[in-house]
Specification:
This protein has two domains: 12-74, Winged helix-like DNA-binding domain superfamily/Winged helix DNA-binding domain (Arc Repressor Mutant, subunit A), CATH 1.10.10; 79-222, Up-down Bundle (Four Helix Bundle (Hemerythrin (Met), subunit A)). The chain is built from nine helices and three strands. The chain has helices spanning 12-25, 37-44, 48-61, 79-100, 106-124, 128-143, 149-173, 177-191, 195-222, and strands at residues 34-35, 64-67, 71-74. Strands 1-3-2 form a three-stranded antiparallel sheet. Strand 2 (64-67) and strand 3 form a beta hairpin. Helix 5 (106-124) runs antiparallel to helix 6 (128-143) and helix 5 (106-124) runs antiparallel to helix 8 (177-191).
Length: 223
Amino acid sequence: MTANRAIARKSLPDTIANDLRERILSGELAEGAPIRQETLAAEYDVSRMPIREALKRLDAEGLVQLTTNKGATVTQHSLRDIGEIFDLRALIEVELFRIAIPNMTPQHIEDCAQTLTRMEASYYAGDVATWGALNSEYHAALYAPAQRSLSQDVLQPLNQKSDRYVRMQLSVTKDIARAKDEHRELLALATQKDVEAACALLRKHIHHAKEDILQFISNSRCR
């Protein structure tokens, strides 16, 4: 953990939780790593109270595991759990996409296209963190016309968990060519209102991500 991460004293638990979340998603704090409250308090130049509150929030999100009298660790999901995260994503996202496509307006299409352009630019700039955030934003934009806020609420933490592993893989492999092409094709099919083809491609897109990431994580853990 790096030192000297002092921050402004405003909404301390939220601000610290946001920063720790990014450190976990980016891989700076590795899965299974212990998190010491006293060390974090020194890094952020705060008392341990806002650190505890921030860790409780991350525990509720599934990014951190808090154990009584044993402190906190960065959550390490099993390969089975990682696979399930992507399977659940597929179930929810394909249905959202199916409902969203008939409701897409030219403005929805334009918003998706702009986000996609920014996402591709961030990748080619080597900014994996921004790419990960924009990837989630792009998928959310595809599904927004479905107007299913409860489904989106269920999907958001699943995307957050999967984003962590997507970033881990991309930071090492730099392999995005297929994902880039599939993202473009998803938007093209949605623009054409080809619901069945678009949903079939989305299902395949999530399956590709799942298989690639499971292979990557399995190989990483065997080293």
